Amino acid sequence: MKISNRSLEKHIYGSYRTEYDKGYMSFCHYTEEQIEYFEKVSDFWWVRANYTHSVTIEVITDATEISFDYKMWERYDACDTMEVYVDGLCYGIKYLKDMPDKGRVSFDLPTGQKTVIVYFPIDRKVWIKGFELNGSVCKKVKRKKGKILWMGDSITQGFGTFRIGETYVNVANRELGYDVINQGIGGYLFDERVLTSMPVCTFDKIIIAFGTNQFLNVDFDEEVKKYFTKLHQLYPSVPTYVLTPIWRRGDEQMQAKLEEAREKICAVCAQYPNIKTVDGKTLVPPLEEYFYDGLHPNALGGAVYGHNVAKIVSGK
Fold first, then answer.
1. What local confidence, expressed as pLDDT, does residue 77 receive?
2. Which CATH number characterizes residue 106's domain?
3. Computed over its alpha carbons, how large is the radius of gyration of the chain?
4. pLDDT attached to residue 145
5. Residue 142 contacts by C-beta under 8 Å, 6 or more apart in sequence?
6. Rounded to whole angstroms, how far apart are CA atoms 93 and 84?
7. What is the band of 6 on the pLDDT scale with cuts at 50, 70, 90?
């Protein structure tokens, strides 16, 4: 069963808007206005704002093989993956180090009807076309009404896990069952200038995780205040969860500064009744075994982080 790009759009999750180029389609988490802003202020941020992390193809199918043509732009880390999950379990992994920048990829699937999720890489922009299933069933996967908007830095983007299915956002959302817009960008921080209305989306919840890239800034307090003032103007009643910085490697002085930053974030957020702060220290164990580099959770840390966030957001 061949599925056209236009027909495939209803099976795409995690995208704010679709882009087309010479028969290929790709996906973006941001408005055009936001992308233009990143392009002006930082090439580093602009490139990562264009990546397709947390974008998925999701179908209910009886196929035993799924395949499509792809091309990839701006490879950042060759350790990255493209993955397929079947009924909530990882069933196939393709490592970017083994994949050319352009080609056709296929995944084998078990027999019977099942829910299939294809995850695009963390640190790459992927364009696709020629999507094909070798079965006769292709149904839409139902998600909860509304979306979750995630905003954060490289940890929210998923760097350090090197397994797209094990980033904390993707782990959490397999439990929560929403469509998501993951606006995590490596190196990013509280920056009110990027906040803007996103009229195509209705957000049921917002999750924010910043601070580890700027907690030593002398104007940290002011940056946080400006960010949440603007956020409140845009989303005054949307339930919002603010995850304070998780553990990171460092001496006692740095840990004290990080804790001070957590307290400052909590103090600002306390002004807004729709915002709940969550202590980042309770979300990932403070042990090197759960981290790639003492800052970014590895696949194990991402799984624990995502599960704990899902419990809080779902109220369990």
1. 61
2. 2.60.120.260
3. 19
4. 85
5. none
6. 7
7. very high
Residue 165 structural domain:
147-314
3-state secondary structure the chain: CEECHHHHHHHEECCCEEEEECCEEEEECCCHHHHHHHHHHCHHHHHHHCCCCCCEEEEEECCCEEEEEEEEECCCCCCCEEEEEECCEEEEEEEHHHCCCEEEEEEECCCCCEEEEEECCCCCEEEEEEEEECCCCEEECCCCCCEEEEEECHHHHCCCCCCHHHCHHHHHHHHHCCEEEEEECCCCCCCHHHCCCCCCCCEEEEEEECCCCCCCCCCHHHHHHHHHHHHHHHCCCCCEEEECCCCCCCCHHHHHHHHHHHHHHHHHHCCCCCEEEECHHHCCCCCHHHECCCCCECHHHHHHHHHHHHHHHHCC
> Do residues 177 and 210 share a domain?
yes
Instruction: Give the rounded percent of residues in the chain with a pLDDT score beyond 90.
Output: 94
- Give the orientation angle of helix 220-234 with respect to helix 252-269, to 10 degrees: 30
Phi, psi of 81 (to 5 degrees): -135, 160
Do 182 and 238 reside in the same domain of the chain? Answer: yes
- For CA atoms 94, 309, 55, 48, the dihedral sign is negative
Q: Which residue, 125, 140, 155, sits at the end of a domain?
A: 140
Integer Cα distance of 233 and 253 in angstroms: 36
Residues 60 and 28 in one domain: yes
Residue 209 has pLDDT above 90, yes or no: yes
φ and ψ of 309, to 5 deg: -65, -40
Phi, psi of 100 (to 5 degrees): -70, 165
Place of tokens 């998925």: 56
Residue with tokens 């190196």: 187
Best CA proximity match to 53, nearest among 77, 72, 29, 20: 29
Q: CB atoms < 10 A from the CB of 88, how many?
A: 11
Instruction: Give the count of beta carbons closer than 10 Å to the beta carbon of residue 34.
Output: 19
Q: What is the CATH number of the domain that holds 226?
A: 3.40.50.1110
